[in-house]
Amino acid sequence: MPLTQADIDEERTHFANVIATFQQYAPYALNANNRRRKDIHIIPIEDRELLEQIGYKQRISATDDAILANAEFLNLLTANPEIFGQDLAEEPAEESPDQPESSTRHDPRRGQHSHGSSHSHSVSHPHRGHSHGGGHSHSHDSPQDGLPLTDKGRGGKRRYKPTEHDMEKLRSTLKQLVRDWSEEGKAERDVCYEPIKEALLQHFSDIPQEERGNFRILVPGAGLGRLAWDVANLGFSCQGNEFSHYMLLASFHMLNRTDAVNKHTIYPYVHSFSNLLNREGLLRPIRIPDVLPSGLAPGSDFSLVAGDFEEIYGAEEGDDAESQVGQWDAVLTCFFIDTAKNIVNYLRIIHRILAPGGVWINLGPLLWHWENNTTNDPSIELTLDEVKALARSIGFEISNERTVDTTYTNNAQSMLGYVYHASFWTATKII
Ligand SMILES: C[S@@+](CC[C@H](N)C(=O)[O-])C[C@H]1O[C@@H](n2cnc3c(N)ncnc32)[C@H](O)[C@@H]1O
């Protein structure tokens, strides 16, 4: 189905709002921190003096500095928003309705682009459900979430006012950078990505290393792209797919604009003062990236495609979009399948795009992202047994089943840690 003008406008507005969220991170986060400073002045003076002695105020100031350092990094990510084929110098609220569309726009259904990690462009649906990071946050968004609440910026221009939900996504992106691109994230990464890579290597164990590039591996819901990058680094042809603009802005910068190991320093844990043992838990710097993302061997085939998994890979023979049927030798899903509104469709697509004998390797929980959504979207919420039964009915043979205990974007130095008993399996397409 071709994009309608309404789709294009919605996408444009959404992306502009994401950029606005990045741009307003500093005042928003500083303001939240300033509340702590104000509270000190409300309590009795003798209590204040005690707090002064133990360095509480000084910790609040150090948090301001860390927020400003984060903002500096986040500004780099939005420095070239035209990567998605649109120039957002003009805010959409000011846009004339008959303004012509940018000629550089990509059709998401055309998917892949050339060099290194590349991005095409697609409608990104505001996510209104659960998120994996910080497993306790099962809250749902208010009905107005994502709507362009605006105020007047300088010069009287209307400006998007990010919601708490927008900011939470931005803060999660910082933690996701730890998971995928820092030395600190290695422990969590190893627990999640190593079993997947091992199963992949096992499946292709009779293929000489120099021939791995002939095999096409897809990683839907690729997040910041590290698993897909690792798989390309093993020599396979690998494509990640991701639809969140937060993720895409961050992965684009990591993969295409970062020219040195430990180039950036971020402070992902400065947004909550709860469950901290010491200053370190709050203020420790995280250096990224731990490897040079551009350091893939010459001739590697690695791409990142922006857009909705179901739209891009769900195309059938005869659709206008490029058919993906039977085009993939392996599909790797890590903390992804529970993002489905309709898991039947996800599994059907995974099955359909695999070549005969192809393999689907999965690791993750079943935190159904659309459960209790406020947008009247469908949400099919199966048990693990039911997901496996469904996979078998669709034509998979499941093997290598086990449980993997893992955190997800966890602050390793927090007094609180959520552990997922994630399910792992290898499923081979048999019919
Ligand atoms: C829980 S995260 C997991 C990210 C990554 N696989 C990891 O393990 O770090 C799920 C990811 O899937 C993406 N996602 C959700 N639904 C999607 C869809 N329909 N198409 C493409 N990406 C999607 C989200 O934006 C998010 O980045």
Automatic annotation (TrEMBL):
Its EC number is 2.1.1.22. Residues 90-165 are annotated as: Disordered. InterPro entries: CARME (IPR012901), SAM-dependent_MTases_sf (IPR029063). GO terms for biological process: methylation. Signal peptide: none annotated. GO terms for molecular function: carnosine N-methyltransferase activity. Residues 111-137 have a biased composition (Basic residues). Keywords: Methyltransferase, S-adenosyl-L-methionine, Transferase. It is an enzyme of class 2 (transferase). Belongs to the carnosine N-methyltransferase family. This is carnosine N-methyltransferase. It comes from Trametes pubescens (White-rot fungus).
